[in-house]
Specification:
This protein is 0% helix and 51% strand. It has no helices and seven strands. Strands 4-3-7 form a three-stranded antiparallel β-sheet, with no helix packed on it. Strands 1-6 form a two-stranded antiparallel ribbon. Strands 2-5 form a two-stranded antiparallel ribbon.
Length: 80
């Protein structure tokens, strides 16, 4: 997400879509990487009891300083 929309910090809009035929919950891990490609922060989000065919879009915010140049990336996702 553009830093102008997030108070100057790195953030990622995560789209979770339930493509199953029944209610499901999801856990998602987002890693924030520095310019060298090293993971400097890990954040988690998810969605519980998402109806079939529906989607949720939580936002994950970094807690690093606004001056940090970070790139968010999907590390893991699990349906349960």
């Amino acid at each position: 997400m553009p830093k102008a929309q997030t108070g100057g910090v790195a953030a990622a809009l995560v789209t979770i879509t339930n493509k199953t035929g029944h209610k499901a919950s999801y856990a998602v891990q987002i890693d924030f990487k520095n310019q060298a490609g090293q993971v400097v922060e890990t954040r988690f989000t998810g969605s519980e009891n998402l109806q079939p065919g529906k989607k949720d879009q939580p936002i994950v915010f970094s807690r690093q300083s606004a001056e940090s140049r970070l790139t968010p990336s999907l590390a893991k996702a699990q349906r349960y």
